[in-house]
Design goal:
The complex is a heterodimer of chains A (467) and B (246). Chain A has 467 residues and is of the alpha/beta class. Chain A folds into 3 domains: 11-93, Phosphorylase Kinase, domain 1; 99-317, Transferase(Phosphotransferase), domain 1, CATH 1.10.510; 321-460, Rossmann fold. Chain A has 18 helices and 16 strands. In chain A, a hairpin with a 6-residue loop joins strand 5 and strand 6 (89-93). In chain B, strand 11 (201-207) and strand 12 (212-218) form a beta hairpin. Chain B has one domain: Metallo-dependent phosphatases (Purple Acid Phosphatase, chain A, domain 2, 4-Layer Sandwich). Chain B is built from 8 helices and 12 strands. Classes of the chains: A alpha/beta (467), B alpha/beta (246). Chains A and B meet through helix 1 and helix 3 of A and strand 8 and strand 9 of B.
Amino acid sequence: MAKPFHDAGKIIDGFKLEEMVHYGDMAILWRATRPGLPAPVIVKVPRIGENADPAAIVSFEMEQMIMPRLSGPHVPKFVAAGDFSAHPYLAMEVLDGKTLLPRLNDLPLPYDEVAEIGVKVANALDDLHRQHVVHLDIKPSNIMVRPDGSVVLLDFGLSHHAQLPDLMQEEFRLPFGTAPYMSPEQLRGIRNDPRSDIFALGVLLYFFSTGVRPFGEGERLSTMRRRLWRDPVPPRKLRADYPQWLQEIVLRCLEIEPAWRYPTAAQLAFDLSHPDQVKLTARADKLQRDSFATVLRRRFNTDLTNSRASAPAAAQISSAPIVAVALDLDDSAPELVEALRVTTERMLATMPSARLACLNVLRQGRITLDSPLDERGHNKRIDRMVGLRHWAEPLKLDQDRLTVHVLEAVDAASALLEFVRNNRVDHILIGARHDTLMRSLLGSVSSEIAAEAPCTVTVVRPPRAGV
Amino acid sequence: MLIAFFADIHANRQAFEACLADAQAKGAQRSVLLGDYVGYGADPDWAVTTVMEMVGNGAMAVMGNHDHAVGTPSETMNAEAQFVIEWTRSQLGPEQRAFLAALPMTIQDESRLYVHSEASKPAGWIYVKSTLEASTSLSATPAHITFCGHIHQPALYSLSITAKMTSFTPTADAPVPMLPGRRWLAVLGAVGQPRDGNPAAAYALLDTEKKEITYCRVPYDVEEAAARIRKAGLPLWLAERLLAGQ
């Protein structure tokens, strides 16, 4: 091991370096203590002074700017920072748990476990993107899993913050990142597209589910650039039992053109959480890579190989929300059902990347065991799903933008709220219950949703009748 | 300490009043005025009197090209600006003209330099349009942060220890840390005549403890400022461009 920049026992800005826990290319991590702090912290010290790599300094400066601005459960808690005028360091919470790196010994993992990891990482990315940050170095060693199973993203040294100067962009002409996970647009020097993280997560999902890296490990620029035109071997060719829905999701993440990937990490998490609702396209059936002619066309399509500006994270996220509409098809007045459709249509018209989840609650008795069949022997759940699709049909949405869900629950409001929370719904539309007797007996579902939902709520009423 | 920076007020009373109120509400303790108090707008008398009072109370102020032109007619100004300067001169008393004529070109304040335009040649009134001029400006001074205005479009440049320049268009009201390991050039947007497509008045706040700069945008009564320009008989285009922020 090369000589560390500091020795154990040294005190930096009150932090006593106790034990070196990681010695990386760019920085060294120490477990450290400071009187007055309830618990030890991790102190990250950049590797400068030896053969000072300018990248180590600049990436440390970026991380120093970005980390204090991040919050939430999916990033390490920031404690303190010192700058280059004295001792540069970053102090953050100690995270118990392991990164995904050791899991490389267990590959390939079962499909449902890969999907579960994917949902957690996609949700963490959604949190990060909503804080104006594109990570740009998503890989197993930068994803920490806490003992409770939650995911924390590490290392913002290569990240881009839409509201801060991008020091990496101007400093270095060569792209920075980790070769197997780097997106095509990152190779072209674009650093502000959140869909680059979706690509990197796609590489991880492909690797974890097949045991093979989709674009190999080559670090030479010429090898890396092949992903600008060459698609990966379809996972189903590698594993005969590979589920179509997972191939659909993984290959969509790995699309060369960012616009063909999921528009947001939340939408990716949504599909990974609802395998039975994933719209299968030609991607799901693929057993061979694209033909030589297709690849050749891409190779010389300058539109794909040239760099291009993309919209900032905030604009992309706000144009691609997950919208849910709660429908009570049996008990609602036809005017209300129609009013909900008109409102939904108007909302979706302005947002071509939004997706719509149609929800219906199948009420369960509190004590009795309900039969899944109605009195005529029809499956209630399937009937409802058919009803929801029929309601949505006039909206003429592409199938990959529409899902239908029948939630079985005793309490409608709780079931809807749980769906909204688990699926990161941005906006829910719900009809106001018209019948005053029903409302006084059962309470208003819409008012409970409006009060409790962690997102925007639109309560729809039928148009006023003429006076 | 929280320091408020105002550039290119250009005799726009409504915009300057709105910025001063905003800075006060945010707790600004000191003010720095980066030149061009007059020209284009309809209230030069009020603007210069206000600046004189602020300087009397401890604010720092440097000279802008329009302030200079009031005392020394310039051949490089366009006809429209020249016309307004002639009108402005007629609006100002001798005391105010003397104040403008005596303003310094630059002020060094601790590790900060205040100047109206590019710092290598302050009297050349060169616009900082890109990293090229920003680099020239930063090479001309040892200051850690240089503050300037003149171009009416906010930007933030930095120079790394490896001598690489970065440029950045700040997001309104989002603080940016000014890392001590770099040298910075903060180009302010205009209080009184924004030209970045956003008609809201622009100024900036520097938090010297947190070492953060925030570019602020303040909505103001643009209609009234435009109406006063028309009423004063100044070129109509000057009223129109306020409404568009161009």
